[in-house]
């Protein structure tokens, strides 16, 4: 159990991460990182590889400003079941930014995660927004980690840019 902070640099392999997740019974993964660090690319790769291992895989698109599963302003969830993917707006946030809406944002993510769990998701991959700098970002991620209790946090960084955030939410960067 517990939360593992995994700094991920340029070379990561979705197959190896999913194999390790299966071995350690990981059920929830949050991917964090600055804008354009590869969070969505990694989330999509993990989702595709996990689809080969499990029958029910969940994905949460938390990037309300650049939503890729639907329109911006919502937390989107996708569940893959037996070669079929269903996408739903888990919760409407009503903003393109999380600033000042940290509690409402996290509540929307929890609602979406609960829906995915009710659909039988074996693993849930959360693609967080690129909001990682400053006290509001630290509050957002601290609330998320505290309430969602992820098994893994995958921190995408090439240098120690996320160290202040990871330290604030209670986990040292490795």
Protein model, in words:
The chain is α/β, with parallel strands linked by helices. Helix content is 36%, strand content 25%. It contains five helices and seven strands; from the N terminus they run βαβαβββαβαβα. The protein has helices spanning 14-23, 39-53, 102-118, 135-148, 163-168; strands spanning 4-8, 28-32, 56-61, 74-81, 84-92, 123-127, 152-156. Strands 1-7-2-6-3-4-5 form a seven-stranded mixed sheet. A hairpin with a 2-residue loop joins β4 and β5. α1 (14-23) packs across α2 (39-53) and α3 packs parallel to α4.
Helix content: 25-40%
C-alpha end-to-end distance: 18 Å
Uncertain regions spanning at least 5 consecutive residues: none
Number of strands: 7
Shape: globular
Largest sheet: 7 strands, mixed
**Helix count from the secondary structure assignment:** 5
What's the average pLDDT?
Answer: 83
Strand order of the largest sheet: 1-7-2-6-3-4-5
Strand portion, in percent?
15-25%
Structural class: alpha/beta
Indicate the radius of gyration in whole angstroms.
Answer: 15 Å
**Would you list the SSEs in sequence order as H and E?**
EHEHEEEHEHEH
